[in-house]
Amino acid sequence: MMKEITSTEPIGALTSMHPNFNFDNSYASTFEDFYVRCRATLASAPKLLQLNHALAEELGLDPAALDSEAGSAIFSGNAIPEGAEPLAQAYAGHQFGGYAPQLGDGRALLLGEVIDTRQRRRDIQLKGSGPTPFSRGGDGKAALGPVLREYLIGEGMHALGIPTTRALAAVITGDPVYREIPLPGAVLTRVAASHIRIGTFQFFAARGGVEKVRELAEYAIARHYPGLADAENPFLAFFQAVADAQASLVARWMNVGFIHGVMNTDNMAISGETLDYGPCAFMDTYAPGTVFSSIDRNGRYAYGNQPAILVWNLTRLAETLVPLVDPVKDRSVELLTGVLEQVSSVYEKYWLAGMRSKIGLTTEDPNDLDLVNDLHWVMKDGKADFTLFFRRLSQAVRGDDDAVHNLLEQSGAFDVWARRWRKRLEQEARDAETTAQAMDRVNPIYIPRNHKVEEALSAAVQYQDMGPFSKLLAVLSHPFDEADGNEAYAEPVPNPSYKTFCGT
Ligand code: AMP
Ligand code: MG
Q1: Which residue, 63, 338, 432, 492, is most buried by CB atoms nearer than 10 A?
Q2: CB within 5 A of ion ligand 2: which residues?
Q3: Which residue of 136, 263, 267, 296 sits with most ligand 1 atoms within 8 Å of its CB, as the best mutation to test the pocket?
Q4: Nearest CA to ligand 1 atom 22
Q5: Are 144 and 184 in contact (CB under 8 A)?
Q6: What are the tens digits of pLDDT across the range 137-189?
């Protein structure tokens, strides 16, 4: 299949090294026609800016050995560690609703899969390592700012307990990349449960037909949902499992005010991890229509649209599975539709569970959905900062409503709501302080505030100063622990004209 694509023959890496990556490359050995073996473009002066020591250890690597020139060489793509088989994966996808039959890793290389210290199989991918046959005219590179942005926000999401790809390293290449202006080039090393996307299924369906989709689905089941292999209808069960994982994920996003920004089908991982931090950002003032991405002109991926887009994307996945679920097409469509029809309520179940804990509830009451929905009206009308509002609710539990009042333009509606809430809290068999502490463990005080992210990135890009980045990363690593001296990291500085860009 891939033979149709003519390679641009990127410049090869030079040396081979032995940093003990425990590679076991199942994708490379399973899907030969659906990727292209590739090399990274040589970086002229690679320098390691950031290494995730804890993650390196999880992967069975020696952080001290990698925090070195050898690490710079590996994480820039200049050196290929023993056992790596660099390749660019093919995928398709619906971008802003329109189908693109061939996307693929245009600026990324899968080095291989590592079995980590907990026996989990994880992809190690370089992002920004130069052009591949899938670059479609792009330069295959990444600028430092977006690389550090993915690092910060991804690690912030991880600390919030939200499934996500991780950042292992950020390297500056020493070469400029040309966007509107020349910018320092960089490479991010990303770790993922896998990089199989809804768009991977779309590509396999379009280019390989039923048999290839079957192979991919069997592979994805074995890798991500091994318990389903013996299910009565494994492919239907697989669809249900992916739907469940993605519904849970989007609910988690909604619970913290995260806007992915580019929920194209090629950016939705089958594993249920958050994938591809491009124009993403956290909402400040609660407003369901919030959009930050400069290219999302119609607000397709606005905060409040994410649950609907979840279903739209899963419908695209379902289409690829029709030939597998049942030999009778109508029956297959009926079965898949049955699952799809449940996604919104599955999503709502996860979202409501998250919201219950955010307002201090551990039990379920049929009126909770109304209570939570009405709270959103209070926030909306009062123009409350989403993150601080939930965080300060624990103060109200402790008897101090001022902290909440101060976040609202008008607080009367809150007082009315709070009477219902307090009544509902009385059904809980917990004392106020226990409830307040539990709330503080689920409502972050620190999220990647847009102004703080920009400050960290511009210090790094303009002044080669990684100080603000390191400090912000440290703060985001403990999002629930309010600490003296970190007030500025909690402070919202809403900027209605704030724009984000795709350009990793
Ligand atoms: P994204 O919007 O980051 O999900 O990327 C969508 C597609 O565009 C993927 O196939 C990327 O590999 C490709 N792409 C994005 N930026 C570049 C670039 N600078 N060079 C080559 N391909 C790119
Ligand atoms: Mg992408």
Answers
A1: 492
A2: 267, 276
A3: 136
A4: 106
A5: yes
A6: 999 999 999 999 999 999 999 999 999 999 999 999 999 999 999 999 999 99
Element (H, E) at 175: strand 166-178
Verify whether ligand 1 is closer than 6 Å to residue 103 (CB atom).
Answer: yes
Q: From ligand 1's centre to the CA of 50, what distance in Å?
A: 23
Measured distance CA(386)–CA(376) in Å, rounded: 9
User: pTM for this one?
Assistant: 0.96
Which residue out of 105, 175, 244, 266 is catalytically annotated?
Answer: 266
Rounded-to-integer distance, Cα 233 and Cα 132, Å: 38
Contacts of 10 (CB under 8 A, 6+ apart): 38, 39, 40, 41, 130, 131, 132, 140
Between CA 259 and CA 272 the distance in angstroms is: 16
**CB 190, CB 75: distance < 8 Å:** no
Q: Which residue has 């979202």 as its token pair?
A: 351
Encode burial over 372-411: b for 16+ CB neighbours within 10 A, e otherwise: bebbeebbeebebbbbbbbbbbbbbbeeebebbbebbeeb
